[in-house]
Fold SgcJ/EcaC family oxidoreductase.
Amino acid sequence: MTPSETTTADDFTRAFARAWTAQDAKALADLMAEDGDLVSLTGRWAEGRKDIAATFAAEFAGTLARARLVTGRAKLRQLGPQVAVLHQRFVLSGLIDPQGADLGRVGVVLVATLMITPQGWRAAALQFCAAEG
């Protein structure tokens, strides 16, 4: 599934997970609105697709170089016909510290404000953070 195939808000999670697994920073950025905002797993705030792609690329070259996602529980709330809020749990493994040691598995949550565009559903804002419970 490519970003252009996000014909429903539910498709967003699948497209995100596929792009993540491929460590395709451009495909992840393409899931965002052109002027979208990202708060990444490492806490970086990126604005706009170019900055978002650079953020994901840097993370995949470092801490997230061997990271893998396992999809968990999701909650999608339609706020209207063209806007939705997505909460998606993942288990993230393969994180490495600067010395290359495995940091174990952690629970993470992706929270995205999605909007429909001519290219499909895109995130106007996305936060990807560690979570418990």
Summary: The CA atoms of residues 76 and 86 lie 5 Å apart. The radius of gyration is 14 Å. The domain at 3-130 is CATH 3.10.450.50 (Nuclear Transport Factor 2; Chain: A,).
